[in-house]
Amino acid sequence: MNKHHVLKGTVAVLVAAATLAGVSGMAYAADGKQAADLAVHGGAQRIAGMYGNQHAKNVILFIGDGMGDSEITVARDYLHGANGSFDGLDKIGQPSAYGDTTVGTGQYTTFSLGNGIQDKGNPTVTPVTDSAVSGSAWATGTKTYNNALDVDVYGNPQLNLTELAKAAGKATGNVTTSEIQDATPAAQISHSTLRSCYGPQGKTDGSSNNAADQCEAAQLKENGGIGSISEQMLDTRADVTIGGGAKYLHQTVQGGEYAGMTVWDQAKAMGYETVEEDVDALNALQYDGKPVLALMADGNLQTQFAPSVATKKDPAKDENPIQCAVNPDWLGNENANGNSASLADMTSKAIDLLEANPNGQSNGFFLQVEGASIDKQDHNANACGQIGETDDLDKAISAALDKVDLNETLIIVTADHAHTSQIVEEQPNYALSTVLESPVDGAKITVAYGTSPDQMYANDDAPKFDEVESSMSHTGTQLRIAASGPGAQRVNGLTDQTDNFCTIAKALGLKSTTEDMKTLSDGADANLVVDEKGQRVEFSGFDGDASVTYTVTDPTNGDAVIATSGEATGPVSGVRVRTDQTMSIDLTGKLTEGKTYRVTITGRQSGKVVARDFQAPAAAAGDDSQVVPGETVENPGDNTSAAGQQTGVAGVLGKTGSAIAAVVVLIAALVSTALALKTVKGRRH
Length: 685
What we know:
Layout: H1 9-21, E1 27-28, H2 35-38, E2 47-48, E3 58-64, H3 69-80, E4 103-109, H4 131-140, H5 161-167, E5 171-179, H6 183-186, H7 211-214, H8 229-236, E6 240-244, H9 263-269, E7 273-276, H10 279-284, E8 292-295, H11 315-319, H12 343-356, H13 358-363, E9 365-371, H14 373-379, H15 383-401, E10 409-415, E11 421-424, E12 432-437, E13 444-449, E14 479-484, E15 493-496, H16 497-508, H17 514-518, E16 525-531, E17 534-540, E18 547-554, E19 560-564, E20 575-576, E21 583-586, E22 596-603, E23 609-615, E24 626-629, E25 631-632, H18 654-684
Parallel strand pairs: 3-9, 3-10, 4-15, 5-6, 5-9, 6-8, 7-8
Antiparallel strand pairs: 1-2, 4-14, 10-14, 11-13, 12-13, 16-17, 16-24, 17-21, 18-19, 18-20, 18-22, 22-23, 23-25
Helix pairs in contact: 3-15, 4-16, 12-15, 14-15
């Protein structure tokens, strides 16, 4: 039954508007902001401080990759007629479309801060963004350079919405029609200085290794790094992950706890319910307490429509306009058992699993859904391909609306960047084009592609999606964003992609500022555990960090190192944090009975230090485990964070030290304020 529950919309909208209007200190983005100022977390927001007071139990974010206004119009005109509308895509954000819900519709800006890793450390305003920067912007609230994922322009990891939702006890999901390692889905599962770092062997099927070309060396686990996108996906541990890219999990892990295993085997060892290219198995999934990892294709999923090929101007195209045909290999076609795996099917399954999850039931969920190949087929000048993928996304939105209650669920529909296709009045002399005939109103629709002069396919007679000689380009125009449900009014007007991070985080009640995120590591702790599995230090609670470093030493032997994560050589080195999970340091065979050791664990983003002394007991027999509480170490060494603030476990500073620290912070704040006022006065001249 359709659950488009009616809100008391007039009152809700008026209250929301009044709330926004009454927010003190609301700050619109200043004209002429420089790249270095835009590079900080939240620096590119256009409506910072305008949050309202509406909260949603759930948020579903729908992304049409490459879905600019032109791409929406091309698909709507062909599929529904020039005066028609999409059932889902056009209804989100439209007043009274699903009852008098709280709604909003606006545009947002999409620029990046560099053309690639060569610009790391040197923020430069770049008008046209790629999917990695865009995904990072709404996932973290931080702008970065093209090809980077969830790191700032200096390479420092930034916590994403999936990690923050998990820290808040919510269920999480990630659904896409692309390879799961591709930029948009990867922005919810990883921190990578290069978007091409798909797996421990780079971007291969495991039969070779090109990681040296595809990954920054410091990020690889064999070099003491946080690992590739696929490895980090398993560490992030979203409750539901559905997409493509199965072949990259056949790579062999090169370092760390699971070295020598394939990534698929690592997933199974970590307790995942795995599905590999099996539509029936996907449809049969039921919640059983395990996170789901279902990859439905080796690479990207097949498109709904078979490809069309854009060609140079030819009068015969006007005389014989084409209509699109369904791709027989599309997973949305029902198989012999009546099962299918369209984006709508995968979205519906993800919502079922998240709602059955105890965290989802009690605390709600965050789900990102991407229609990925609108972009990929626009790159290929494939009009039918991009139209079918827009339709697939529209149906996924409708499927979600049939399942959720807009009184408690915020649905946002937007894109990551615009693309090159345009409806024009006649075939251009200078560009490739396709002439379509709408099966609805019979209109002749000429779609032109003007940013590359060449045939897109390597084999003109048999187009292959992944074999392109050249590629149509992204464009830098602003994008449509629409929302329905609690907090939807925040997308009104002109915002930035980074504002979308705050819209979602505030609606869900997540930590959204850098300082607030650091507090997620306040409860971090560590203890020695001895059981039949051996001896290990277990630690948890570093939820304000993307990575940690650790050292276990023997104070009685000149602080000899017993175990270490290795020296942190760069921002993406260290041990990847598994949010809301317990992690361990294996010490089996390394401890002497009765001897005292010290473990020091440092959060690389929060600066939090946990230092514990523990005495190694005798190895436990049977199934009983021993938890040996560590002793808090008073002022363990030089526990200072990168910001110069002393850190440590609760009680390390003591009352006097805490008071001193508070005074120091106050003085620093006063000095900072004075400098800021001086700067402002100087600018007025």
